[in-house]
Amino acid sequence: MSELRSAVEALRSETLPDLPDAQIEEDFAELQRTLELLEVERLRRLAEIERRRIFERDGYLSAASWLATTYKVSWGTARDHVRIARALEEMPATRRALDEGELSMSAVRVLVAARDADPSAFLRCETELVEAARIHSMHDLQRVAAYWRQAVERERAAEGDDMLRQRRRLHASVSFLGMVRVDGDLDPETGETLLTVLRAVLDAESRSRGEDDDRTPAQRRADALGEICRQWLDGSERPTVAGERPHVTVTVGAEAIQGASGGTSELDHVGPVHPEAARRLACDASVMRVVMAGRSEPLDVGRRTSVVPPAIRRAVIVRDHHCRFPGCDRPHTWCDAHHVVHWADGGPTALPNLVLLCRRHHRMVHQAGGFRLELEEGRPVFRRPDGSVLEDRAPP
Ligand SMILES: [Zn+2]
Ligand SMILES: [Zn+2]
Question: Do residues 352 and 375 lie in contact, with contact meaning Cβ atoms separated by under 8 Å?
Fold first, then answer.
């Protein structure tokens, strides 16, 4: 890397007015070419930083937020760079042409945008599209890419409306390790409704703190669907089932929740869950708990009780407004009320022991060996896994 620096120094010391025209032109060509090669190398390292999740050391939720904050890059640009870095990893022919100096980064941006329309169709046509980028001007390449996208979309729309509706179906079933497999085809109208709601949730999330791109688009959609279901369950209009409002119920063995081995925790539909997940689930306000008797003295044995009564949850919301993790400002509708000292360890379900955390930060503080949260003189103090204090960064 220091050789790179000294090459720049050498360039800087040249007196340009003394150089002949041909030399300036030749140097410019070399610099233009090198600049693009360097950009490719920068993006390759960005993709590696994302893959190794190096940004997590300081609690950033994504490579884009790390890039934006550390190098004072705008959110849009940071997200764009991460997206291109990620896409390039899956575009072998494009990479090859870049390495050989046959494509500019501007052309690559057009190709990445085309790929977004349908990555698997792009992979089939990549060689032809790269060839187009090689021979056409930028203007013509943009038209070629637009035609290609239209053709891909036309192919998909070739089937009739009624026939499509007949094919609607949705399966949701418990599979391996309590995962739930969702699979189906929605008719255009229902599909449009789903996409509208998903988009609204995704937009609201990125508006509240536009840094969420560490997850794959598929993971973001899965989280959004969970959020939609959670918020439906929290609504007051939902129908009652067997005289009760439906709610997620976790049944915990008193020993399991206290971290001892043996004893199980279960959810009604998917069955046994990991003790760590059970502790996190049983920490939050919107869940019902049933504690089963263990050898130690259990709480509320066998009764369904809500973990945090609605009035206390409201008080926590009034005090905190949004997620309390340093630098996070997700609104309370996206948050759980976290017990700083878990109730299973004797922590009271009372205002001073409860802190609003968005679901992602809630997950982070419950992870063994992850970020820690303690009350020090009544104020929540967040620590990194190595024990150092995470300063409260003001939200942007
Ligand atoms: Zn918690
Ligand atoms: Zn948060």
Answer: yes
- As for how many domains the chain has, the answer is 4
Distance 323 CA to ligand 2 centre (A): 5
Ligand 1 centroid to residue 282 C-alpha, Å: 8
Tell which of 141, 156, 171 closes a domain: 156
Residue 226 shares a structural domain with residue 324: no
**260 in any annotated domain:** yes
CA of 31 from ligand 2 middle (Å) equals: 43
Ligand 1 centroid vs 61 CA: distance in angstroms?
A: 18
Question: What is the C-alpha separation between 346 and 297, in angstroms, rounded?
Answer: 12
Whether residue 215 is found in the same domain as residue 259: no
Computed on alpha carbons and rounded to an integer, the radius of gyration of the chain in Å comes to: 27
Main-chain dihedrals φ then ψ at residue 253, nearest 5 degrees? -75, 140
Same domain, 357 and 300: no
The rounded Å distance from CA 384 to ligand 2 centre is 15
SS3 state of residue 192: helix
Of 158 and 3, more confident:
3
pLDDT of 298 reads 45
How far does residue 380's CA lie from ligand 1's centre (Å)? 13
Helix, strand or coil, per DSSP, at residue 226: helix
pLDDT digit string, tens, across residues 339-355? 898 887 778 888 888 99
Find the ligand nearest to 327 CA. Answer: 2
Q: How many CB atoms lie within 10 A of CB 61?
A: 22
Nearest ligand for residue 284 CA: 1
- Is residue 161 included in any domain, yes or no? no
For residue 382, the ligand closest to its alpha carbon is 2
Confidence of residue 112 (pLDDT cuts 50, 70, 90): very high
Q: For the segment 146-200, what is each residue's pLDDT rounded down to a tens digit?
A: 999 888 877 777 655 666 777 888 988 888 778 888 888 888 889 999 999 998 8
Domain hosting residue 30, numbered range: 19-156
- Answer whether 355's CB lies under 8 Å from 340's CB: yes
Same domain flag for 279 and 345: no
Specify if 193 maps to a domain: yes
